[in-house]
């Protein structure tokens, strides 16, 4: 949403985020997710990453003043790479901009899972768990690293479809979540 080159659209998105931050504060939410979503092909990547970062810094300050975290998702076209989000966070130069870790296969690309995690570990304020049964994603290592780093935030279930009764599914998902943490 902060990648648009049209300054009017960019400003509308920034101001719209501020409205959502106020709403989040009004209802007692502790954070909101925002999306960088794209790096256009016709604009230098560094320019777009800087624009996104500066936009995040502006809304991050407002969020901090309201007691609401601003969490950028590792999501979108070209912005779903950990190293890109790291650059965007660096461009924000803000202590009030955080990350929502997306538990996507892209987390393992490039320098690898451990280095990618370590790039952002101090900024992670939310986790989106996908299909915990998948052996393609290193969930056990993720939970270990989160524990080592003192993570106390939320882990949200983001599942595209459910093939069981909802309550039964939630019970199985909880059991697997606990098992990954070596609790049971």
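^ Assign residues to that structure.
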């Amino acid at each position: 949403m902060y990648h648009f080159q049209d300054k009017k659209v960019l400003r509308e998105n920034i101001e719209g985020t501020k409205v959502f931050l106020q709403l989040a504060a009004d209802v007692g939410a502790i954070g909101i997710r925002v999306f960088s979503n794209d790096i256009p092909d016709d604009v230098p990547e560094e320019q777009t990453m800087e624009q996104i970062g500066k936009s995040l810094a502006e809304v991050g300050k407002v969020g901090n003043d309201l007691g609401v975290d601003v969490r950028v998702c590792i999501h979108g076209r070209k912005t779903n790479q950990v190293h890109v989000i790291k650059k965007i966070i660096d461009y924000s130069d803000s202590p009030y901009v955080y990350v929502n870790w997306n538990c996507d296969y892209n987390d393992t690309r490039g320098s690898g899972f451990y280095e990618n995690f370590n790039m952002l570990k101090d900024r992670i304020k939310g986790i989106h768990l996908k299909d915990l049964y998948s052996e393609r994603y290193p969930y056990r290592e993720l939970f270990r690293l989160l524990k080592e780093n003192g993570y106390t935030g939320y882990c949200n279930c983001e599942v595209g479809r459910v093939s069981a009764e909802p309550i039964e599914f939630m019970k199985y998902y909880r059991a697997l979540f606990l098992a990954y943490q070596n609790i049971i």
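Helices lie at 7-27, 45-66, 82-92, 113-120, 139-148, 166-180.
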